[in-house]
Amino acid sequence: MKAFFSSSIFVAAAATALLASIDSSTVHGFTVQKVPFAVSLKKTTVSSRANRRDASSPSALFFFQKAQRIEDTVAAAEVEDGEDSSWTDFGKHRLSYAYAGAWVALVSFAFVFAPGSFGSTQDSAMLQSIMDNPTAPDINSFFYGIFNLFAILPIALACTIAPRASDKGIPAGPPLFLSAFVAFFIMGPYLALRKDPKTVIGDPSRELGWLTRNLWENKLFNYGTLAFGILCLASGAPGLENPAETWKGMQELLQTSKFASVSMADLGLITLILIKEVADDYRIRCAPENEGKAAAIGASTALLPILGTAIYCALRPPLIDVAEEE
Questions:
Q1: How far is 108 from 106, CA to CA, in rounded Å?
Q2: Which range among 32-41, 132-141, 255-264 shows the weakest confidence by mean pLDDT?
Q3: Average of pLDDT values for 113-123?
Q4: CA–CA separation, 276 and 236 (whole Å)
Q5: 28 and 14, same structural domain?
Q6: Within this chain, do residues 138 and 106 fall inside the same structural domain, yes or no?
Q7: Distances (CA, A) of 92 to 86, 104, 193
C-alpha cells in the first residue's frame, strides 16, 4: 500500500548524474582532447608545468616535447580511470556492511519474526478500508498518519542522495524510484553497493542531472513537499480526541499485524539512513566553519521521521558554484 500513497505525488524519480562532456581545445597548434572533469585538474596542473619548463626550448624540440607530454598525460588519465573500474565499493568502508546487515535484519523480521502472517484477515480488512476511504479509513489514526509519510519518502531520499550520487556504479535513479514501493527493501542493497558519493561539487550546473537541478534542488518544490508531508501527518489528527486510547490501539496493532509492524520497522531504518544522508548533504553545501554542525542537523531530522528531512531540504543552503565563488 506504500505504492498507493506514494504514486499519488511521485510518478517518476530518476536521478542520473551528467558525465563530464569531452571537448577539444588548441594548445600551441595542437588539438588536445580534454579528459573527464575528474582528471581535468590533474591535466591542467601537468600542462601548466610543461608550459613553464618548455617556454625557452627551441621550436622543433618544444613542439615534440609538448605533444609527447600531452599524450603521456592523456594516457596516464586513462590508466587512472581504469584502476577504478569496479561497479561497487562494497567492503571498502565498514558502513557498507552496516547497510547490508540492516537489510538482512529487515528481511528476516518481515518473513520470520514479525507478528501475524501475510494476507491475514486483519491486514486484508485494513488495506481494504484504506482503499475504500483513503481520507478516513477505519484503522488506527496514529498509525495511519505515520504511515502516510511514506508518500514523501522517495522525494526525501532523492533530495539528499541524488546530488552526491557517483557517476560510476549503480545509477541512483532506479532504486530511488522503486523506494516509492518497497522503501528500504530496495534502498538497503543500493546503499551497500553504491560507489562512494561525491564529497565536493564544484560546478552544480554541469555535475547535477536535470531532475536534481530542477526538482530536488528547487525550493518551491521542497516547500511543496513539506506542505504535503504535513497534510499526510495530519491524517492522524482524529486520534487526538482520545490520544491515550489511540496510542494503546496502535501498540496492539503493531503486536498483531505483519503489515503494520514491518511498515514501522522499515520507517525506523529509513529514519536512521536519512540522519547520515542529511549530514553528508549538509557538508557539501555549508561553509567550512559550519561542518561541525552536520551531525547535529542530521540527528535533528529523526525527531520527525521523513518529515524532518523535508524540513531540512526546504531550509538547507543551496549548492555553490566554486568557480563563481572564487
A1: 5
A2: 32-41
A3: 94
A4: 28
A5: no
A6: yes
A7: 12, 19, 10
Grouping H, G, I as helix, E, B as strand and the rest as coil, residue 242 is coil
Average pLDDT along the chain:
81
What backbone phi and psi angles, to 5 degrees, belong to 8?
-70, -25
Cβ atoms 87, 170 nearer than 8 A? yes
**Predicted TM-score of the model (pTM):** 0.74
Confidence band of 56 (pLDDT split at 50, 70, 90): very low
Question: Based on the domain organization, do 112 and 221 belong to the same domain?
Answer: yes
Same domain, 14 and 142: yes
Domain check: are 57 and 163 in the same one?
no
Q: Are residues 53 and 133 in the same domain?
A: no
Provide DSSP, 89-156. Answer: -TTTSHHHHHHHHHHHHHHHIIIIISSS-TT-HHHHHHHHHHHH-TTS-SS-HHHHHHHGGGGGHHHH
Of the pLDDT bands very low, low, confident and very high (cuts 50, 70, 90), residue 63 is very low
The total number of structural domains in the chain stands at 2
Q: 32, 60, 83 — which closes off a domain?
A: 83
Could you list the residue range(s) of the whole structural domain that residue 212 is in? 2-19+91-325
Specify whether 12 is located in the same domain as 45: no
Helix and strand tally (H, E) in the chain? 17, 2
Strand-pair category, 30-33 with 24-27: antiparallel
Same domain, 116 and 36: no
For 24, the 3-state DSSP assignment is: strand
